[in-house]
Amino acid sequence: MLKKITSYTFLLVGLILLNSCKKEYESIQSIDDTKIKDYISRNNITDAIEDPDKTGFYYQIKTQGTGELFKTTDSVLYSVSVKSLLSGTDYYTTPSITNLGTYVGYASSFSYATTNGSVGFALPALRKVLQTLKPGGVARILLPSYLAFGKNGATLLNVPSNENIEFTLTTYPEKSQRLLDDRRIREFLQSKGLTATKDASTGVYYAVTDAGTGTAIELTSTLKAKYTGRKLDGNVFDSSTDGTFSTTLLQVISGWEVLKNFKKGAKVRLFIPSLEAYGTAGSSTGTIPANACLDFDIEVVDVTN
Known about the structure:
Chitinase A, domain 3; single chain; about 20% helix; 15 strands; seven-stranded antiparallel sheet
């Protein structure tokens, strides 16, 4: 009899705890929903659209974009900003020198990583809202906490517990990274008042101070060079200026292969699209983000064939 009572007691306690957790979860949903609706009303967002599946998020199309609506099979390039819905505190914005990219059908999460750690969450709303936009379109997604960083928040981004999130999604008109890289480089050159020649096969732009007069450079040549590498925001990520750096063109990023057009003594500035640099992964150290174009000053001090 004692065993039966004990078993029933545990079952009863378990049901009470389960029901309590369910009520707590439901109350968070209710609280978040009220906050988001109040925010929409208070800010007179008359064009806010509730998720048709009633999962809890709302979205607002700020700019429709041009062309045809994104399909799940389309490639999409985009940037995001993440901030507190109620306080407006900024938590994260995609740096202007880079972007995110995937197929629309795979766009179902948000993640952020540094050498100090990573954070992310499932975000089906991203895919849903993308399919309401055209290339170049912008949308704002209002996310309840339970569809964002949840009860734990995100220490890496300083997001507190149960924070409702404003997630702004900006898509680019270009559907290929190569086209977006090319525009970024052209706009950079224009902003700096620089003139450069585009290499047709690689998309690398180069500005020549001295073409060199010595030994011709080949893919397998051993070069000694001085160089400084920068991101397009001007930040230097690597430099070797004493002339001891030695390599072949097969051992460095493919954008350097443009140096085949020059000779020993050449002084060249290269503007390298991301696909000829560190691509969609970025550098292994995290110094160079994914999809980042690069700017190099290079002087070839010696060539050995």
